[in-house]
Amino acid sequence: MRYLWLLLGLVLWAQQDMATRELLLKYDAKFWWLNLQVSNNSTQLDPSWVLTRLEVTAPSLDTLAFELLSSLIVDSVVVDGQRRSFLRVGNTIRVPLSPQPSQGALVEAIVYYRGSSSVGIYNRQSPTWGNVVTWTLTQPFSAHGWWPCKQILSDKADSLWLFITVPYGTRAGGNGVLEGIDTLPNQKVRFRWKSRYPTAYYLVAFSVAEYVDYSFYATIPGIPQPVLVQNYVYNNPQTLPHFKAEIDTTAALLREFSLRYGSYPFWREKYGHMMAPFSGGMEHQTMTTLGFFGFELTAHELAHQWFGDWVTCGSWQDIWLNEGFATYSEYVALQALGTPSDARNWLIFQIHDRIIQGSRGSVWVDDTVDESRIFNYRLSYAKGASLLHMIRFRVANDPLFWHILQSYLSSLGGGVALRQDFQYILEQVTGQSWQTFFSQWYYGEGHPIFSARWNEVGGNLWIELRQRGSWQASVPFFETPVEILVRRQGLPDTVFRLEQTQPIQLFGVGNVGTVTQIEIDPSYWLVREIDQIQRDFTLGVENWIEVTPLPVSAGQFLSVCIPTDGRIEVLDLSGKVLHTAEVNEPLWRFQVNMPAGMYFICWQNKEGHIAYKYFWVHM
């Protein structure tokens, strides 16, 4: 019986949640004005109010709804200057409207409320610096814990005012530009923050503590005025000296990201940081909340201003568009401002090795109710970053790669995007289909595991590349380009790029010299494991099959003698299969219709024995 009641409760919750969403989808939020009274000593919201200006999108609006934690007390609701009755249904406020505003009508509603919350708003003392802080952290579903809102990603307000009244001696950080600080009775001050950029609900934030304001300006190419970098740092005398060098790096990061992604999108207002005692950071629009300053963390949260704030994922299933891109920006920052070893070590140890700790898992999020799955570091962050790295590898043209990202941001800036929006732009810019890539790497689970046999005969290199997926039930084989590093005696190392289009594939490279060793994917462009690489002295030795005539001319028939039944493939030197046949007789004939060049025949019998023979086509 206990489980029956639990099941019934879940069904009722789902129905209520769906009903709330249907009500919220009946309007479009245009403007938010949050007028809050808070302190750095508790999560108490003294009598506060939030004004929402909205446009009706349904044929008519019979009920106006907001999400607000049920434990917060609503004193009154005023709609278009008239006090209205309202209902509290779970974590929602529902306001019946009569007469009902019609589609296109503008409505202004104010919710007056108060109380203390433990959802989305926190109060804690820094264990390192001793400062007491109240701050908000609402991603993905906790904004309703401290203000009446609409938690739907696709609905960004066009502008935002955030007025925060706090005790004298403290400061309140927030979104946008600080347009003024008002002195109020009872030892209170009010910080008036205003932003005129589209903002998603979870990116609205404040933080209150005894701060010092450490601000400076960054000059960014392409922007007509210096950008304010405003930092609220604990007023502990040791805090700013400890972090100053890292904070100052923000200016260089702003310049580097602007060169690659396009100008910092919120340059008319500011970028900054406000400290709070938690481990990590949160990319609140124009003013990130940070527990500490470190190069990679600072770079990550700044990159979110482009990827996550300016263009926001339209569904938590596609959190890759936020976190994968911001995580990869750590690598971009290390390449630009760090050392080559810094960037390589980050790529291998921070990203690659974490991903291959598990054999399965997709970047695409299949459960958007589970926050731990949405923000799974191995999949959404690390593997998400690797997807961008692999796209960069496939494009093989850095200016074009940056152009892809710039096109994505300029096309969708100020709004939201889904995975297919990014894929559409990627395909438009490159003129190529990326469907297989996203099917395998984004929706598919796992990664490739490579092994190889190789041999060098007379200065010609033969490589038999084998691959299997780490999670065969999802992706048995990943179609991908692969780099091979070839170490040579008396000659410099060289790298060849091969296109693997089948699980077992033979490649031939002529005139390479004496080969001593090969490595697969030496630069870690791919998420992969390497199983075994060994030299096989029988590979490329031509004693199992006979091919005549040699050379052969276009239009002639090539005769191939094989020892037993098997499968024959004709391939070019890149490994591309040009012709395939199942042969059950000792002699097979093939009419040559390829351009002049070198090709080879691959034969494999049912027992797995493989032999190769190369041949030349003359004009």
Write a concise synopsis of the structure shown.
Helix content is 24%, strand content 38%. The chain has 619 residues and is of the alpha+beta class. It has an eight-stranded mixed beta sheet, with no helix packed on it. A five-stranded mixed beta sheet has the order 16-17-18-20-19, covered by helices on one side.
Which segments are poorly predicted (pLDDT under 50) over 5 or more consecutive residues?
A: 1-15
β-strand percent reads: 35-45%
Quantity of strands, as a count: 37
The number of distinct structural domains comes to 4
The amount of helix comes to: 10-25%
CATH architecture of the largest domain, by name, is Sandwich
> Mean of the pLDDT scores?
94
Distance between the first and last residues' Cα: 84 Å
Q: Structural class, judged by helices and strands? A: alpha+beta
- CATH class group of the largest domain: Mainly Beta
Give your account of this protein's structure.
Helix 2 (239-261) crosses helix 3, helix 2 crosses helix 4 (320-337) and helix 8 crosses helix 9. The termini are far apart. The chain is 24% helix and 38% strand. It is built from 10 helices and 37 strands. Mean pLDDT is 94; it is low at 1-15. An 8-stranded mixed β-sheet has the order 5-4-8-2-1-11-14-13, with no helix packed on it. A 5-stranded mixed β-sheet has the order 16-17-18-20-19, covered by helices on one side. The radius of gyration is 31 Å and the shape is elongated. The chain folds into 4 domains: 17-310, Immunoglobulin-like (Sandwich), CATH 2.60.40.1730; 316-443, Neutral Protease, domain 2 (Orthogonal Bundle), CATH 1.10.390; 448-535, Immunoglobulin-like, CATH 2.60.40.1840; 546-618, Immunoglobulin-like. It is an alpha+beta fold and 619 residues long.
